[in-house]
Amino acid sequence: DMKNSIRVIAIMFTLLVASSAWAADIFTPALNSGNADDVNCRVLNTGTTTANGVTIEIRTSSTTVEADGTFNIPGGSTSSVTDFSPSATMYCKVSGIKAKKARVTLCVLDANDTPLQCVTGQ
């Protein structure tokens, strides 16, 4: 009937709005920092124009931010944040840039800043 059709449309619209809001953030897979000296999250703007107000966060959970910064990243350039005292399992969350115009990489680094392990997010 009409009432159920309206209810289904309302639910679908709510899911569409919610999923587009979630799609704004880019996440890397989690990495165990182990015996790492540092953890670094780097964002490459693969576009040709400046992405303004890009927020980069290194997190240990959905609520704990270990390092963060907000940047204006010109096309073809990178910006990054580093956690100098990493603990446990960490991941990178980036907002303010479209996923198709960004490459987000989280790396666990040794004392010489040599990457021990890296993952790229979507």
Task: Give a description of the structure.
By secondary structure, the protein is α+β, with helices and mostly antiparallel strands. 17% of the residues lie in helices and 48% in strands. It contains one helix and nine strands. The protein has one helix at 2-22, and strands at residues 26-27, 31-32, 38-45, 51-59, 65-73, 78-83, 89-95, 102-109, 115-121. Strands 1, 2, 4, 5 and 7 form a five-stranded antiparallel β-sheet that branches. It has a four-stranded antiparallel β-sheet with strand order 6-3-8-9, with no helix packed on it.
Tally of helical segments? 1
Helix content estimate: 10-25%
Principal-axes shape call: globular
**How is the main sheet built?**
5 strands, antiparallel
Strands, count:
9
SSE succession: HEEEEEEEEE
Distance between the termini: 41 Å
Which residue ranges are poorly predicted, with pLDDT under 50 across at least 5 consecutive positions? 4-23
Strand content: over 45%
Structural class: alpha+beta
Radius of gyration: 18 Å
Please tell me the overall pLDDT: 84
Topology:
Layout: H1 2-22, E1 26-27, E2 31-32, E3 38-45, E4 51-59, E5 65-73, E6 78-83, E7 89-95, E8 102-109, E9 115-121
Antiparallel strand pairs: 1-7, 2-7, 3-6, 3-8, 4-5, 4-7, 8-9
